[in-house]
C-alpha cells in the first residue's frame, strides 16, 4: 500500500471515528444505567472498521444517516453492535440493523422475571413429545445424524416456577419468512435455524410481560426493511419470477429493453421488366417514386 493510499485510508478512519464520537453524549443519555457509553462507542467504531463495506457505506450521506440511526436504536434498547447479538448489514449506501435471537433473549432475561429461555430445532431422528401445551421430552442422539429439521420450539421458565412454550412447524416458519421483505437475505440464508428460533420466540413473547426495551426491539425487527424494496435488497431466487425485468434483476445483470421485433413488410409483386428501351422524360414529376 502506497503512502498516499495509506494517508487516504487514515483520513477516512479519522472522519468515521470523529463522527461516531460526536454522538457519544447523545447515546449516553438513553443507554441503560449499567452501560458504559465509551465502550458502546468503541464497539460501534470497531464494527464499522472491521467491515470494509460498512466503512465504505458510512462515507455516503445516506449511509452515515442510516448507521447513526441504527446505533441510536441499539443505544435505546441496550445492545452493542458486536456482530453476535446485533448485526449492522450494509446494502449499497444504506445500513440496516438486524437484532439476533440471542439479543432478544438477553433483553428478556434483564427483566428479572425469567430464569431460563431455551429454543431448539426438532429433527427427524430426534425423540420429541408435545402434549397439551407442554414439551414433555426432547431427546437427541448425537451418535447419528439428526436429519432435517421439521419444527422449532421455545420454552420460557419464569422465576415463580411456571413455564410457557411455543412450537411451530417448519411450514409455519416458512410462511412467515416468505411474507417478510428480507426472506432471501443473509440472516435467513446463512443462519436459518437462528432466524427460525427467533420467529418462534417472538410468537411466544406475546405471552410475556415485556419491558420497553424488548418491545422496541421486537417492533424494530417487525418493521425492518419495510421501506426498502425486497427485489433491490435481496436476490429473489425462491419466489416465482413472471416478467423479463425481474428475471434480469435476479441474475444480477443490467436490465436492457428487449430489441423491437422487425416489422414484416408487405410482399410486393414482381414487376415485369421490359427489355425494350423506352423514351423517358426525366423532367416529368410523374417518374418520381415516393
What key attributes describe this structure?
alpha+beta; three-stranded antiparallel β-sheet; two-stranded antiparallel ribbon; 7 strands; globular
| Fraction of residues in helix | 40-55%
The residue ranges in which pLDDT falls below 50 over 5 or more consecutive positions are: 225-258, 273-290
Strand arrangement within the widest β-sheet reads 3-6-7
Q: Quick one: overall form?
A: globular
Structural class designation: alpha+beta
Count of extended strands: 7
Largest sheet: 3 strands, antiparallel
Measured distance between first and last alpha carbons: 69 Å
Number of domains: 2
Cα gyration radius (Å): 31 Å
> What does the average pLDDT come to?
77
Q: Number of helical segments? A: 11
DSSP strand (E) fraction? 15-25%
User: Helix-strand pattern, N to C?
Assistant: HHHHEEHEEEEEHHHHHH
Short description:
It contains eleven helices and seven strands. It has helices at 3-30, 37-50, 52-58, 61-77, 101-109, 170-178, 186-190, 192-204, 212-223, 230-233, 244-250; strands at residues 86-91, 94-99, 114-123, 127-131, 134-139, 149-158, 163-169.
